[in-house]
Design a protein that fits this description.
single chain; 209 residues; mainly alpha; 8 helices; 0% strand
């Protein structure tokens, strides 16, 4: 999300209003989608911080209706809950069986360094290493080798050469066909690809919360 401020989140935590947005072409915590965000306030790597701040502003508003102590206690849970959720979701997305929160968080850190050092995007990363099917060198490869697959990878998507993506160049290609030629087929194909990815990821289970 390009600008993850309070008016771009609903009460249950989902983000919306995708104005200046990007899917990462390569892993970069400093990547900032919004052209006007010169300080990097909403940089990719600062999104958890932005969400935590938004929750704090909600707590300030609720202070008119509730005592401060339970609100502060709830806010203090954000860090641990975020860490747990990231560990669960990362293992699910990669199609591997969790080895516990600490091990999974260590794997996430190694994966981020692996992507950053090799200029790999998340789409390609999760596709290539799905279920640990493709080995890797370095720290990430060593940690990944200890994990077992947890997903059914018989879906035809995993036999494709690459994962579908929505990086900005791809979106512009789809829009260019519509804008210049009234050709909606690239959009239809892209929607079909995304639905296929969704189906492949849900082969075993829905994403954990």
């Amino acid at each position: 999300h390009g600008v993850l401020n309070t008016d771009n989140m609903n009460i249950s935590g989902e983000s919306f209003d995708y104005g200046p947005w990007r899917w990462l072409p390569a892993w970069d915590a400093n990547f900032t989608a919004a052209y006007f965000d010169h300080s990097g306030l909403y940089a990719f790597g600062r999104q958890p911080e932005a969400i935590n701040w938004n929750c704090g502003q909600l707590a300030v508003a609720l202070r008119l209706l509730a005592d401060s102590e339970p609100l502060i206690a709830a806010l203090n849970r954000f860090g641990p809950l975020y860490r747990q959720a990231m560990a669960r979701r990362f293992a699910w997305r990669l199609g591997i069986a969790s080895q516990g929160e600490d091990a999974d968080v260590a794997l996430i850190g190694a994966a981020e360094r692996h992507m950053r050092e090799r200029a790999i995007g998340p789409d390609a990363f999760f596709f290539t290493h799905r279920g640990g099917r493709t080995s890797a060198d370095g720290e990430f490869g060593e940690l990944l080798s200890a994990y077992k697959p947890a997903a059914d990878d018989t879906h035809s998507l995993w036999r494709e050469n690459a994962a579908p993506n929505l990086i900005i160049e791809e979106v512009e290609r789809v829009w260019d066909a519509i804008d210049k030629h009234d050709d909606w087929e690239p959009l239809n194909q892209k929607v079909a690809e995304i639905r296929m990815l969704g189906g492949a990821l849900k082969t075993n289970s829905s994403p954990p919360r």
